[in-house]
Amino acid sequence: MKKKNHATSKELAKTLLKDLHQAGYQAMFAGGSVRDHLIGLPAKDFDIATDAQPETVSSIFKQKNDHVVPTGLNHGTVTVVRKKQPFEITTLRQDLDHDGRHATPEFGVSFEEDAKRRDFTMNGLFEDIDGKIHDFVGGENDIAQGTIRFIGDGEQRIREDYLRILRYFRFSSQLGFQPAPGTEEAIQKHRDGIKNISQERITSEFLLLLGAPAAYAALTAMSRNKILSLVLPEAKFSGEPEQQKGLDQTREVGSAETYPLSALAFILPRSMSKDQAEKLGKRLKLPKREIRGLSELLKGPSSDLIDTKDNDIIMREIDVLDEKEPGLFLDLFIPAWNTLYPELSRRLDDLALFEEKNGALRRMPMPINGQQLKKAFGWREGPEMGSILKSLRDAFRRGEWVTYEEGLKKADQLKRKS
Predict the structure, then answer these.
(1) Secondary structure (3-state) at 225
(2) What is the CATH number assigned to the segment(s) 1-145?
(3) Cβ contacts of residue 278 below 8 Å, gap of 6+?
(4) CA quadruple 304, 306, 311, 315: dihedral positive or negative?
(5) C or N terminus of the chain, fewer CB within 10 Å?
(6) Helix 288-299 crosses helix 274-283 at what angle (to 10 degrees)?
(7) Domain ranges in the chain?
(8) What does the pLDDT look like over 137-150, one tens digit per residue?
C-alpha cells in the first residue's frame, strides 16, 4: 500500500482553505491534525472548520469540479475529494439537546464557541493557513504538560457523549498522557453511561486502545475505574508485569493491522471454546475474518502443526490458516501464538522459518486442475481423482514437477499407483 505523503496532503488541504477564504469565509484546520502537529506526530487527516454553511461549502467546491460527498450534513460535515484525497469540512457549531449519544447542532457560531463543544483541550485547537495556532481552551499547555483534560466541566462533556469515556482511555493509550485532576472521578461517576453506546463504537475505540503503545497502562486504568468489566466482562487482566510484557510483545512482533486482535486474545481466557470465541466476536461486532482469527488464536496451533514433521501436512495446515489471505500465518498467528503459548515458542520459530522458506512455493498456483485432468485422461470426478489432485499438489509444492506437461506425467504415475 502506498503511504500518504503528509506534507503533500497538508499543502493540498491548504488549497481548500484558500478557496474558502477567496469565497469570503473563515476556515482553519481543526482537531487531530493540529494536536498531532504540536505533539510531533505525523497527521493522518486534515479536517477543516469553517463559518460557511454546509450547502455553501458544497456549492463552492462543486464549482471547483471537486467531488463533494454529504457525509454528515446533519452535523454540518461534507467531504471534499481533491486529487483523490478526501478532506472533511465542518461548519462551526455548538451542540444542543444532548442525550448521551446524539446532539442537535446549531450552526453559525464562532471558532471559540466551536472549540468549547469539543471533548478534550488538546482536540479543541485550530491552525490557520499561516501556521498560527488558535487556542481558546488551554490545549497547547496541556499538550506540553502531557495532560488529558476535558474542556470545561468534565461531567458535562461525558453526559453529552458517553463514548468520550473510551476516547479518554484510547488517547491515554496512544499518547501516554496523564489525566488532569478530577478526570477519572468524573469517569467513575458516569461509567454506566457506556451501556448507552452502540457496540460498534465501543469495539472500534477499544481495538484502537489495544493497538497503542501504552495499552497496558490504559487497561490498568480501565480496570481500576471499573470500566474494563463493562466493556469486556470476559477479560482476564490482573495488571501484573507479565501481562505488560505480553502486551508489549504483541506490538513488537505483529503488524498495525493484526496486533489489536492479538492483544484482545491475550487478555481473554485461554480456556475459551471455539463456540464461545465466535459468540464473543459476534457480540463485539467484529468482521467475520477477525472472528475467525480470534477463535484460531485462542484455540492455539493444531497438534498437526506442533507434532508432525511431514512437510505436506504442515503446508496444508498453513493453507487453512492463511485461507484467502496470504501471509496471515506469519503476520498474525505465529507472533500471537508466541505470546499466548510461550512454551511452544521453539516449535513456532521453526514453523516461521519453514513458512519463510516455502511460502512462495506454497502459494504459487498449480498449473493444472481437475477439469484438465478429466479432459486429458477421461477421468470422472470422485474421491479417487480428489486424492490424486491432493497428492499432485503436495508433489508440486515439493518441487517434484513444475510445468503442465510434467504435471500430466506425475498425475498419470499417481493414477497407476492408486
Answers:
(1) coil
(2) 3.30.460.10
(3) 291, 295
(4) positive
(5) N
(6) 150
(7) 1-145, 370-417
(8) 999 999 999 999 99
